């Protein structure tokens, strides 16, 4: 016996309103980051993208690639996995904060 549960607890979402709330939350997080660390994340992103684009255009390396199957199992891979895991956790924390904000906003509208 399957019970029917509504998918949206607060009614059908408005995509434009959702994007506006997301943008507000993102701007708030960016300003908190800038106040805490003294760096604007948007300017850092521009610098990193500029460096990436110019590094990609450089000539390819003439070094011979390793054919050793163990070359893939380096500590660098572990560090990359670790940083990816941290990024994922930070993203989940931010999404949880946004969900809380949406719940408060929906509760206030009632």
Automatic annotation (TrEMBL):
Residues 68-77 have a biased composition (Polar residues). Coiled coil: none annotated. Residues 33-50 have a biased composition (Basic and acidic residues). InterPro entries: CDI_dom, CDI_dom_sf. Residues 33-81 are annotated as: Disordered. Pfam families: CDI. This is Cyclin-dependent kinase inhibitor domain-containing protein. It comes from Lasius niger. The lineage of its organism: Eukaryota, Metazoa, Ecdysozoa, Arthropoda, Hexapoda.
């Amino acid at each position: 016996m399957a019970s029917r549960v509504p998918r949206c607890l607060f009614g059908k979402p408005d995509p434009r309103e959702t994007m506006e709330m997301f943008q507000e939350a993102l701007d708030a997080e960016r300003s908190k980051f800038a106040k805490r660390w003294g760096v604007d994340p948007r300017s850092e992103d521009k610098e990193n993208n500029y460096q990436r684009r110019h590094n990609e255009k450089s000539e390819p390396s003439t070094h011979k690639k390793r054919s050793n199957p163990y070359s893939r199992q380096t500590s660098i891979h572990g560090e990359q996995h670790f940083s990816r895991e941290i990024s994922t956790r930070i993203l989940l924390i931010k999404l949880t904060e946004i969900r809380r904000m949406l719940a408060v906003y929906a509760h206030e509208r009632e």
